[in-house]
């Protein structure tokens, strides 16, 4: 498959090399793929996309876009010459231009600007909104204009930086699905930064995980979720309990001491009787969370454990357990 983006040995530091934002990154994205970039705050997500966009220059390494070297120590192609479309969290529309003119503005080279602008307006479902100004649109509609503007010049790569974080939960999921359906329809290759790992699991062909400026795993969503390579990766995708010595003892599970083991909260069964590993627990505290409750438990051997459950829990004691097939194992 042909590669749209190739990143080799990419390194970036700030403060005269004192703090590393990215260390020796290597990865590629195939044509037509959607890649999500996920990682805790400060892991280097923004720095990575700023380097790809050409808004920062690397200390080391190279970026190849559509088989063309755009960034290295010797060569730097200006951001506007990289043929990249950008969609930001805060839409970045011109307030004094209507929808049509906001989109035409980005079409510097095109001959049939109006026709192309109309094409992308129709594509994002904003037909008849051409004459509206940004302040006359909802947040979701503004984000669709931003997407249309980014797609209009037919970019080689689309970068989306936290595109839905300004929207409320209901709107987010609806717009997320709409936006990524449009992206898939156009076949454009996309890389997007998100804090919401559900977004990444739902729409990305592959997910790239950053930790302290290093790439720690890049895989398709289901592999990443089912076979995380570290507790850090597992924890990004949901509540995960590390099975320390005390917990292993409480559940009487014969897991090797020299490996790190963990269990996802959703694989811990409340009121368990037929699990392989079971222990009695008393409830120290219940916190009501709407659809779920959080329980702080004291296990038989005195260990504390916090679990989240949507099951009705009656009484002050219960049996909890899990099965060996659900245990995650890491070498760290
Ligand atoms: N211009 C800068 N000057 C100095 N340090 C910077 C600069 N930009 C980023 N950094 C540092 O580089 C590291 C990576 O930052 P970056 O913004 O890329 O992380 P991030 O994963 O996008 O974080 P967040 O999710 O909070 O936006 C951080 O330690 C940050 O403090």
Automatic annotation (TrEMBL):
Residues 5-237 form the ABC transporter domain. One of its GO terms (biological process) is quaternary ammonium group transport. GO terms for cellular component: ATP-binding cassette (ABC) transporter complex. GO terms for molecular function: ABC-type ferric iron transporter activity; ATP binding; ATP hydrolysis activity. Keywords: ATP-binding, Cell inner membrane, Cell membrane, Ion transport, Iron, Iron transport, Membrane, Nucleotide-binding, Translocase, Transport. It holds the Pfam family ABC_tran. This is ABC transporter ATP-binding protein. It comes from Psychroflexus maritimus. The lineage of its organism: Bacteria, Pseudomonadati, Bacteroidota, Flavobacteriia, Flavobacteriales.
């Amino acid at each position: 498959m042909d590669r749209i983006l190739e990143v080799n040995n990419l390194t970036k530091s700030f403060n005269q090399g004192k703090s590393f934002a990215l260390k020796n990154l290597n990865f590629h994205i195939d044509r037509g793929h959607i890649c999500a970039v996920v990682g805790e705050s400060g892991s280097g997500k923004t720095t990575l996309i700023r380097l790809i966009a050409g808004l920062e220059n690397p200390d080391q390494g190279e970026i190849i876009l559509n088989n063309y070297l755009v960034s290295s120590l010797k060569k730097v192609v200006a951001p506007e010459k990289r043929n990249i479309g950008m969609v930001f969290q805060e839409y970045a529309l011109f307030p004094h231009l209507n929808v049509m003119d906001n989109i035409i503005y980005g079409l510097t080279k095109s001959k049939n600007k109006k026709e192309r602008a109309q094409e992308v307006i129709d594509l994002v479902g904003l037909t008849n909104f051409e004459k509206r100004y940004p302040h006359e649109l909802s947040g979701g509609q503004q984000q669709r204009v931003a997407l249309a503007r980014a797609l209009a010049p037919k970019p080689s790569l689309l970068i989306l930086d936290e595109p839905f974080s300004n929207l409320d939960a209901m709107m987010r999921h609806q717009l997320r699905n709409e936006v990524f359906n449009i992206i898939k329809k156009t076949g454009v290759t996309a890389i997007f930064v998100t804090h919401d790992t559900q977004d990444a699991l739902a729409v990305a062909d592959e997910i790239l995980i950053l930790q302290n400026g290093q790439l720690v795993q890049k895989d398709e969503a289901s592999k990443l979720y089912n076979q995380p390579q570290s507790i850090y990766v597992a924890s990004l995708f949901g509540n995960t309990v590390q099975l320390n010595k005390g917990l292993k003892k409480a559940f009487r599970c014969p897991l090797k001491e020299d490996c790190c083991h963990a269990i996802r909260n959703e694989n811990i069964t409340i009121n368990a009787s037929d699990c392989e590993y079971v222990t009695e627990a008393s409830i120290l505290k219940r916190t009501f969370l709407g659809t779920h409750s959080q329980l702080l438990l004291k296990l038989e051997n005195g260990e504390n454990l916090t679990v989240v459950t949507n099951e009705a829990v009656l009484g002050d004691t219960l049996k909890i357990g899990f099965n060996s097939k659900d245990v995650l194992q890491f070498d760290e």
